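Record pair follows.
FIRST:
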Amino acid sequence: MTTRSRGREQQQSSRSKSARSKLDGTGERLPSEGCRTRKRAKLDGISRRVSSESSSRKGKRSQGRLEKKAAKRNRREEEEEDGTCSSACSSPLREPYMPMEVERLPDGTERSKPIVDSEISDKYRAMQEDYYRKIARQMKMPMLVPHAPPNCLVNDPTLLHIREPARKIVLCAAQFVVGLSSSVGRKPLARCSGFWIDLDSEKRTGTIVTTAYLIRTKRPSLNAWLCKDEYASAPKVTVHLRGGTVAKGRLVYHQKHYNLAFVRVKMDPSIELPSYSDKVECAQDIFELGRNESVKLVINHGRVEYSNPTVYERYHHMYVQGPHQDREYDKGGPLIDLEGKVVGMIDSSPERSFIPSSVLLKCFHLWKNFGRIRRPHLGLKFSAISLLNPVLVEDIWIEHKIKDGLIVEEVSAGSPAEKCGIRVGDVVECFNGKCISTAVELENLLLSIVMNSGDGLNSDLDVQIQVYFPRRYLRRIKVLNVEVSEDAEFVARASHLVTSHGTSPSDEPRSDELYYG
């Protein structure tokens, strides 16, 4: 090699070292300090300071970008090493095994056995632990979960004829079903489900409807008409969205009579609201949806059952007939039909009951427009003739020539109905000129009256009812002046106090313990 060649190599080597000194660990070129120094030397005192600050900011931004690129590259390299990233950029898992050697036995046969080597054994155990750790991490992917929670769409052979369409509508409806939990202080209160009912795109908030069971602290009586339930005034509400996301909810309103609660939460504007169906037919297939404590979808199947409520239950409920399922988590969740439309909301009590969507939507309309849900208090309990045993319906027709209407099951002490002469066993046939056949129809009619009359909390309202009096075989039209209130309606019979001097009438209703046992 000539002297000239060696000189050229030394120059190239010095240039490479100079270039490498200007590169950081990621291979990116750093800002040239010498260049900045030469520029600063040409400026006056003020320009020098401004240029120095600007260059410092640029240098920091450049350094920040370099650090982000390096961190991203390091994460990608770590994912490739542990096999957690996509299979397209990671090496496939290989199960380690011990090297074997062939051993010849005295009878001339051969067998394989692991090579005994402490260093290889230690390395094998370490690789095996790492392998199974990666397998366990990999099996957490939803595509590879071996066993899903049991549900009716998988385990019930009687649903085979509707399984495929039901799977589609359930998965579509799952997007608006959420889980909710509540607490007071540090004490957990309840866990239930709910669903989106309203969105405000401008404020980026959504409203969830659920059962007031979410905030109920005490329920001393099974009789809902005695209004003894107690609720937390300032509970902490947490919304559990699908995918494991958790959001802070705010209780904005709850209604005791309908056992409803509305929760507001910051939300993604891309959430879809459900569609509703007002028509609920007897024996109609429905699916109850909810989310359990792991936010997994809970699916139960049933059929709509038309039946009268007991004397303990509100009469705006409808019922579900089907295999008994634990409603621990799906209380407050939606019921959907085979078109994916919401037909009601699962109630927490009574068992297997739900609030039909016709009542639910009217309640939401009242709350959204007036900030409260009011209803007329009639002071009466009913059962529908059309839902009685056909044998009894025939007997009623033979003797009284009526086959429709609401039978009065109880009259509240001191109520306008009692003062008008309405007694247990009388039949209400028409309400404000409209014939009614079920208590749910009556409840919808009551809410419609309030919706059309505007907001007037705790006001009075005149309603006209046509009553059949079976004791006298007469029909009469009565006008009741009833209270319109957002409080839960209280209905209980009056009692007679028995003393040594006889009986003393009292307008005080019997207690739950005395009358209902």
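SECOND:
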Amino acid sequence: MKKPWLEGIEVVDVNTPVSAWGGWFETFVITAVVIAASFITQQADPFRLSGGFPWAVLAPLLAGLRYGFVFGFVSALLTLAVLGVAIDQQWQAAKSFPLPWAIGVVVVAMVAGEFRDMWGRRLHRLEGAYQYRAERLEEFTRSYQLLRLSHDRLEQTVANSGFSLREGIMHLQSTLDAIDGMTESSLQKLIEFVAEYGALTQACIIGITADRIDTSNVLACVGERFPIDVTDPVLRMALDSGELATLNLLQESEMDQAQLLAVVPLTDSVGEINAVLAVRSMPFFSFHESNLKLIAVLVAHGVDHLRFGTARPSVRRFIASFERAYQDFSRFKLDTVLLRLSGNPEEVRSVHEKLRFSIRAIDFICLAREKDQYVVWAMLPLTDITGARAWAQRVADIPATTAQEWMSINEIDPQRIRSLEQG
């Protein structure tokens, strides 16, 4: 197949064999036509033996130049054979067979044929080299396109994953640290952070009035404002499920009616939907499951931070954080480990003070009471059991008399945490 950049250039495939029958047919036709023309133009001396240019030599010359040595030689033999018959039948006036004339015809045919064969071989080699280079160019072009596409995707991935989820939550908490309450200014900071982290180009947070979406109540926005249709199937799916809804989850018949790419309900850890984040536009390379789930996790943690803040009693804040971690595991399979410490009240209080200054930014700790017994609960989001044990050995010297109980979030009864009392 001819490549687009070779338009207008004749491409010969050297691997395609040329049919010999066409060459022989054309050789016989040329020879016959030239001899017939010689007889028609001068019947008394068709081969011009007595004088003038011997036009009959054109047949071997053309056959040799066109197809090579063998075809030219055969055409010369045919011409000489016809000459012999013509002399024998007295169609051609001659005292005897003109041997010098015959030798000249054969030599012309041989020289022309050899010339054609020599240049044919050279051309064949050039065609082979050209075809090899064309194939290499095509391979290089494909490799270049794949490399460029791979580089673009890598560049986009790197640009879109500058932080881990842990770092994202830490930065979110530091961004909202001095803010308390879900106001328009706090929600504007939240959507700007999520837009930067999740590569959103056009999105808004819409308020809910009397348990219904209020499209006129736009609390925060990034990019150009856009109208919201309450009948949008993505919006309806998010409100019905209370979870992240995206365009690709719709049925094919509903996709044409959707204007939104994704909708994330701003649901706090107690299950109340305070508003919704509607996404209208985002780069194509960012519209994938991992990034959308990342946005949903950040939004959920941001809502909890604005609702419950850090100035609440420690147990209540711990319970709210547990509910969020429990939902993160149920929806997105994000690991969380809990540590329960119990023992002598004085030792428990001492360990609590040590751990309180050693926990990481996204970890939570509280001193609570269980059945008139003081206990310390520590929760380490986005951490498995192995990582949690390593953290405990590194940050604090827990007395041997203090009982330690390690639990993954999927192993604990949520009611056990919900029933904690302030210590």
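COMMENT: The domain at 165-308 is CATH 3.30.450.40 (Beta-Lactamase).
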